[in-house]
Amino acid sequence: MLLTGRYELLRRIGAGGMATVWEARDTVLDRPVAVKVVDLAVADDPALGERLRREAVTAASIAHPDVVTVHDVGVADGVAYVVMTLVEGRDLAAVLQQDGPLPVAEGLRIGARVAGALAAVHAAGVVHRDVKPANVLLHGSDVTLVDFGIASVDTAQAALTAAGTVIGTAHAMSPEQARGESATPASDVYGLGCLLTAALTGAPPFEAGSAVAVLQRHLGDEPPSLRARRADVPEAVDRLVRSMLAKDPAARPTAADAGHLLAAVAQGPD
């Protein structure tokens, strides 16, 4: 399948309710790329295509080694599409499922890198909206945050609907998003707190039998102590993650502040 006469869609590598991510080839520049394709008819939102275009244009201005690069965006043949660098490697969700919790130092290193990426995204005026292990790609010692901004396609309309919200997204959704409110940078920090909990303990902060039940726990339950689950987690990290999981967005640290603390603890004493 050839999109806009330029992008040859080769293999489906991810899918959500309204969007599909393809491994593709840019036939003009003869290079591999990833293309996220959003079916605007399924989305049933006349303004979605333009909103995606604006967000992708803003995202394309972000120059950070841990943020996937956006190359092109457009609307054609009833779909919106965003073309990004194709990043090889395993996503953090697959790593945790196959290998279990990360060594503490490695979890802190990855968390600090994701926090730094989020800080750059937020500085550009973009909100990720879906910070979770599946959206963090690991390749060698590198860490890449993917699917930011345009992640809203599969999350904004899905909150609190059992059929629409997948468990993986519900595990990382902030209380304000669960209430159907707009995501903010503080929502991304909450998602990073959920990611760190999963990376260091092997399980998200809250689990239940359905997406709706998980979201209800985000709304009402106190965040768990990482040290209660894993004794070798540093006390400073336990305190940080619990602050990141605060119900009140204003009580959470910024991504930049969280990243600095994680990096400092990961480096250990001088």
UniProtKB/TrEMBL annotation:
Superkingdom of origin: Bacteria
Domain Protein kinase stretches: 7-263
Enzyme class of the recorded protein, top EC level: transferase
One Gene Ontology term of the molecular function aspect: ATP binding
Keyword vocabulary terms for this entry: ATP-binding, Kinase, Nucleotide-binding, Serine/threonine-protein kinase, Transferase
Listed SMART domains: S_TKc
InterPro entries, alphabetized: Kinase-like_dom_sf, Prot_kinase_dom, Protein_kinase_ATP_BS, Ser/Thr_kinase_AS
CDD domains to which the protein is assigned, alphabetical: STKc_PknB_like (cd14014)
Record keyword Nucleotide-binding present: yes
Binding site for ATP: 36
Any Pfam family matching the protein: Pkinase
Record-listed E.C. numbers: 2.7.11.1
Classification via PROSITE patterns: PROTEIN_KINASE_ATP (PS00107), PROTEIN_KINASE_DOM (PS50011), PROTEIN_KINASE_ST (PS00108)
Protein's name in the database: non-specific serine/threonine protein kinase
Organism: Actinotalea ferrariae CF5-4
